[in-house]
Amino acid sequence: MTAGKHRHLAVLAAIWAALIFAPYWMPLFGGYTALGSRVLVLGLGAMALNFLLGFTGVLSFGHAAWFGLGAYACGLTLKFIAPSTPLGLLAGTLIGGVAGALLGALLVRRRGVYFAMVTIAFGQVFYYIAFQWSSVTGGDDGLRGFARQPLDFRAFQIDLLHSDLAFYYFVLVCFAGVVAVMAFILRSPFGRTMIAIRENERRARFLGIPVELHIWIAFTLSCFFMAFAGGLYALLNNFADPRVLHYSLSGDFVIMAVMGGMRMFWGPLLGAVVFVVLQDYLSSVTVNWMSFIGVLIVFIVLFFPRGILGLVRARRTA
Amino acid sequence: MLQLIFFNVTNGLIIGAFYALMAIGLSLILNLSGVINFAHGGFLVIGGYLAYALTPRLGFWGALIVAPFLTALIGFAVERLLIRRLYGRDPLYSLLLTFGLAFIIEDGTRQIWGANGLPFSVPAALTSPLSYQFFFITGYRMFMVAVVAVVVAVLFVLLRYTRIGVRIRAGTLDLETVAALGVNVRALRSLNFAVGIFLAGLAGVLAAGQIGLEPTMGDGLLMPSFIAIIVGGVGSLTGTLLGGLLIGVASGLTAVIFPSASEAVIYVMMAIVLLVRPRGLLGEEGMLS
Predict the structure, then answer these.
(1) Cβ(B211)–Cβ(B93) under 8 Å?
(2) Model's pTM, two decimal places?
(3) B261 in a domain, yes or no?
């Protein structure tokens, strides 16, 4: 093994150790378990977005739509169809993912700014639907009346509702599963092709790669991951309201990805840690937290466009 | 029924004219700078609140003229200090920057003028209904449409017949060549940005007279403007104007049949346009994509 590979394994071990023991070390810094779950869920969303944004180079600014659809579908399933946590997650993932696949087919020929605009605008459709169709979705007040159900393994049950700690580990297991799938895809020939398209779309096309098909598949996969994260978010809050579908949440995901470093696999998770914790802290100490977040965004865009991990890597290679 | 349809079409045209005013400003900036200005709704809010602050000194008419110019000045400064640095980089960054600016503007407005809505009074001469049969066509709404018509006409004439206007249009098609011909593209983009923000500021003053002032009043108007651009076709200002009017009428008509879908129908229109004619009604293939 080379030194680089050793370091890679050491970093991975450190990340997972930090995540596994988070409920025990976070309180030392004023954190709490539910905040940890929130970071994981939003971090998973940011990684799902970055699967498309960072590795295929396609700018979607409407990914909250799939996140929110996953959340609503999960909540509605738990409320009206069957009180089962895995079923809710499955329904959320499928509905958000399939909707994304359908819309993706409409979008794949658009690029850059145009793609971004269309995704922003389409994302808002679901916001309005959730807002207007109050008999089903609860409208502006949000969807209530469901709660995460215990996991039933026949021999024993795990209560997710009353134990934040159990729920944190449930989220962590889900997170690990999705992240493993993402990493597997990115290492596969398909993932390499995604990166080739990001680096030089024209060259990829000349090599005979069906670029539109690849972008569509990457978009669809990203929507499925996003919807899964959305389902977890509904479970986290036992609640879903139209704001999970709003474009400002899409913007938050993009910020997390950029802040952490969009060219890095783990960048968005780091971005989510910083963003979610900062937002949580700022909104508890000042009413003007929006300005602080806004200034932070401007600051990152102007001075740290490659994110925290991009900065670390630049320092190391320098 | 016929009268109801007439009512809603007219209403839709009035709203559509307003969407178009915002969308043309966005479109100008998008075409020449490749920047999706997320803060456009924020600049609209600035325009409205500046007019509110200026009315006691200048009266409604003075504020109507001065507030958009001040907003444009702020826009000019923002372009010079922030947005200019991002030209030539991935469009992601300008999008994020304006997203952050929108946060700052909303919070700043709330800090200065408070979170609650404020009334914005317009001269009585403008508020009286013109006709009792068609009570909905108030003087103010007609006035709004007239202002939009005049401003858009002036803008189109300037773009067609003045040297700077021709350069802006040429830059939309091929900025590199325009630069190579010795045009100061940096100055051109700053000016163009300021003009776009001027339109946002004007839209803010007009909207304030109709719906009052609120720090979030720009939010609901931003998405229709995006859709107006997509429906009309990226790269074409005439298309944007047409797109704005079309979605206004579409949502007006839907309000007759199925009121709760009047907001969603414009998205359906966008989907249809993207399916049938992906470049938009008057757009050119390959613009900004």
Answers:
(1) no
(2) 0.91
(3) no
Mutate which: B29, B93, B107, B227, vs A, most A CBs within 10 A: B107
* Residue of chain A whose Cα is closest to the Cα of B234: A114
Asked whether residue B91 is domain-assigned, the answer is yes
Residue B102 lies inside a defined structural domain of this protein: yes
Convert the pLDDT of each residue in A190-239 to its tens digit: 999 999 999 998 999 999 999 999 999 999 999 999 999 999 999 999 99
Neighbours of A18 (CB within 10 A): 12
Total domains in the fold of chain B = 1
Q: Distance (Å, rounded) from C-alpha B252 to C-alpha B14?
A: 10
Total number of residues shown for chain A: 318
Q: Which residue has the tokens 């907001």?
A: B263
Say whether pLDDT at B58 is over 70.
Answer: yes
C-alpha span between B207 and B229 (Å, rounded): 20
Question: How many angstroms separate the CA atoms of A49 and B129, rounded?
Answer: 51
Q: Where are the domains of chain A?
A: 33-246
Is this prediction's ipTM beyond 0.90? no
In chain B, whose CA is at the least distance from the CA of A110?
B289
Distance from CA of A189 to the nearest CA of B (A): 26
Bridge partners, A152 (sequence order): A157
Between chains, do A121 and B95 touch, taking CB under 8 Å as contact?
Answer: no
Q: Within an 8 Å CB–CB cutoff, is residue A278 touching chain B? A: no
Residue A318 has a pLDDT of 61
Is residue B236 in a domain? Answer: no
Interface test with B, best of A290, A295, A296, A306 (most B CBs within 10 A): A290
User: Is A309 strand, coil or helix?
Assistant: helix
For residues A231 and A68, the answer to whether their CB atoms sit within 8 Å is no
Band the pLDDT of A1: cuts 50, 70, 90.
low
Residue A108 has phi, psi (to 5 degrees) of -60, -20
H helices present in chain B, as ranges: 2-33, 40-81, 91-113, 124-127, 139-161, 163-173, 175-180, 185-211, 219-232, 237-257, 265-276
